[in-house]
Amino acid sequence: MARLTTFLISNMAKMIPLQPENFELETNTVWAFPNRGKWATHDAKYRGNWSPYIPRNVILRYSQEGDTVLDQFVGGGTTAVEAKLTNRNFIGIDINPVAVELSQKKCDFQLDTTATTQIRQGDARTLVGISDESIDLICTHPPYADIIKYSEDINEDLSHLSIKPFLMEMGKIAEESYRVLKKGKFCAVLMGDMRKKGMVQPLAFETMRVFELSGFKTKEIIIKEQHNCKTTGYWKTNSIKFNFLLLAHEYLFVFKK
Hints:
With about 260 residues, this protein is an alpha/beta fold. It has helices spanning about 55-60, 80-85, 95-105, 165-180, 205-215, 230-240; strands at about 5-10, 15, 30, 70, 90-95, 115-120, 135-140, 180-190, 195, 200, 215-225, 250-255. It is globular, with a radius of gyration of 18 Å.
């Protein structure tokens, strides 16, 4: 594995660990990370990005050193950093050039590793330049339809789509994921539900079904608890006032080809 060390963030005047301390693999189907994890270049500045504990668990459990990991929604670069830290080759794709630039900067640190990192702008629906059955693991965190809009004027950005058109496009993504993934390998997707007019919309399970229709088999369904949501106070008040429960979990689906 890549060598353990630390590096100095000069503007914080303190040492930040390059690897997580006292890390242990998750062993059950409920994951909770109240302390979302801060090592290497990880932070929570990219809205909606996932805790680095999630891709680290997925990468360590479902791939080997030297394997190639794909994240076609690279976003803030969390998966990219974890792939580098665990000595995996990495391909990152994002429709948004801002995300691509940020992810590239996140991976700009010194590490004794043989792994390569490639991050570029592209469309998850058409993974141009990625050959059939060339990927060892997909580990990705798509937008949850239009809950958070990640751009203003990128027409291909899935975060502008409502549920039905979003799921149609996710079907294309599932098919491309199936195409590029090696047989017998795994694809991990984090997805959450949403609420419209007081009613829960099961976006996560609809997404799971889309991947199953593309040929994947569902190996694991993991419930990931949500913590430290910025609007918690506001929504707590409204949940009582309007009699609805707060959605405090997401689903991590692990599919097998």
